[in-house]
Design a protein that fits this description.
By secondary structure, the chain is α/β, with parallel strands linked by helices. Helix content is 39%, strand content 17%.
Length: 330
C-alpha cells in the first residue's frame, strides 16, 4: 500500500501525469535534458528516468544529453551521449527537461527543437516553459517527484533506475538533513530501497569517495575561510589556487557544507573563480533563514536554504556578504 503522502501527490497531479504518460507512448524518440553544471539530483533524476524508459519501452529510441560531471561521471553515473545536430534537425522527438527552473540553464539548448516539451522540477517556477509543466518546489528533490510519477504508472522500477533516483534524493536533501526533507521524501526512498539497493556499495561509496588530493582541498578551505559579523562563513578559490589544488571551478563548492553544523555560523558560501565564463560562482547555504532572495540579487536563485549566484568581479564579494549579514543582524 502506498504512503498517503505519495498518494496525495499522485492524486493532485493525475491529469498532468496522464499527459506525460500519453506523450511517452506517442513518441518513438525521447531525449532527457537537465541543467548545466549538474549535481546529484540533475544526474540522478536524468539517469533514473532514462533507465526506467529503457526498461519499460525497449523499442523506443531514448537519449540523454548534457556535459559530463568532472568527478561523478564514470564513478556513479555513465558518460553522457554525444548527439549531432543532424539528429535533432531530422527527427520529431519528445523532450523531457528535469531539475531546471529556467530554460537558459538547460544544458543543451537543442531542447527547443522538440515537437513536445515536458518540464518536471522542484525549483521556483519563475519560467513555466514547456507543453506540460509539473513543479513542486516543496519537495527536496526532482528525483523524488519523477519517482512519484513513475510509480503511478505501475510499471517496472528496476534496481538500477532506483539507485539513480535515490542518489538524487540523497544529494539534494543533504542526506535527509535539509528542511525540505518530508514524509514524502522518506516514503519514496523506502520504495526505492525495496528494489534491493545496497546503500553503501551502490550509492554512498560512489557519491562521497575522496582521495588524498581532495583532503588537501578541504585543508585549504579550513585554513582560509572567514566568518562575517553576521555569522556568514565563506571561502574564496581564485583560479591560481584551484590550479595548485588540482581542481576545476566545477568542484569549488564541494566543501561548502563543512560549516553546516557549526555553532555561531548562520549561513555559508563558496566563491569560486570561473575563468571560462569570466565570473565568480557563488553557492550559498543556510540553517533556517531563506537566502535565495540574496542569491537572486546576484544573478541566481534556488531554494530557500540552498541557492547560488555569481559575481562579475571579486570586488562584489563585500556586497554579497553585507546582504547576507542583513538577514542575521537585527
Amino acid at each position: 500500500m502506498l504512503d498517503k503522502a505519495i498518494k496525495k501527490l499522485i492524486k493532485d497531479e493525475r491529469v498532468s501525469y496522464k499527459k506525460v504518460y500519453n506523450a511517452i507512448k506517442k513518441y518513438d524518440k525521447i531525449v532527457i535534458f537537465r541543467h548545466e553544471v549538474p549535481d546529484f539530483d540533475a544526474l540522478g533524476s536524468q539517469m533514473g528516468f532514462y533507465i526506467w524508459l529503457k526498461d519499460n519501452f525497449p523499442h523506443k529510441e531514448i537519449h540523454l544529453t548534457g556535459e559530463n560531471h568532472v568527478t561523478l561521471t564514470n564513478r556513479l553515473y555513465p558518460e553522457m551521449e554525444t548527439i549531432n545536430d543532424k539528429w535533432f534537425n531530422e527527427n520529431r522527438f519528445l523532450a523531457i527537461v528535469l531539475d531546471t527552473g529556467n530554460s537558459k540553464r538547460i544544458s543543451d539548448q537543442r531542447f527547443q527543437k522538440a515537437d513536445f516539451i515536458i518540464k518536471i522540477d522542484h525549483h521556483p517556477n519563475h519560467e513555466p516553459y514547456g507543453n506540460v509543466v509539473i513543479v513542486h518546489e516543496e519537495l527536496a528533490s526532482c528525483a523524488e517527484l519523477v519517482a512519484n510519477m513513475l510509480i503511478s504508472f505501475h510499471k517496472k522500477m528496476s534496481k538500477e533506475a532506483a539507485k539513480y533516483f535515490y542518489s538524487g534524493i540523497a544529494g539534494d536533501s543533504g542526506r535527509f538533513l535539509y528542511n525540505s526533507t518530508s514524509s514524502h521524501t522518506f516514503a519514496i526512498s523506502k520504495l526505492l530501497l525495496e528494489t534491493g539497493i545496497d546503500l553503501s556499495r551502490d550509492v554512498y561509496q560512489k557519491m562521497y569517495q575522496k582521495n588524498i588530493d581532495d583532503l588537501k582541498v578541504t585543508a585549504y578551505v579550513l585554513n582560509n575561510f572567514k566568518v562575517s559579523k553576521g555569522g556568514v562563513a565563506y571561502y574564496v578559490l581564485p583560479d591560481d589556487i584551484q590550479k595548485s589544488l588540482k581542481i576545476t571551478a566545477e568542484r569549488g563548492k564541494e566543501n561548502v557544507n563543512l560549516f553546516a553544523n557549526v555553532e555561531g555560523i548562520n549561513a555559508w558560501c563558496s566563491i569560486t573563480q570561473d575563468t571560462k565564463k569570466d565570473e565568480w560562482r557563488v553557492s550559498i547555504r543556510s540553517k533556517e533563514i531563506p537566502i535565495n532572495g540574496v542569491a537572486s540579487m546576484f544573478g541566481g536563485g534556488g531554494h530557500e536554504q540552498a541557492a547560488g549566484g555569481k559575481l562579475k568581479d571579486i570586488a562584489e564579494l563585500d556586497s554579497l556578504i553585507n546582504e547576507l549579514d542583513k538577514l542575521f543582524i537585527k
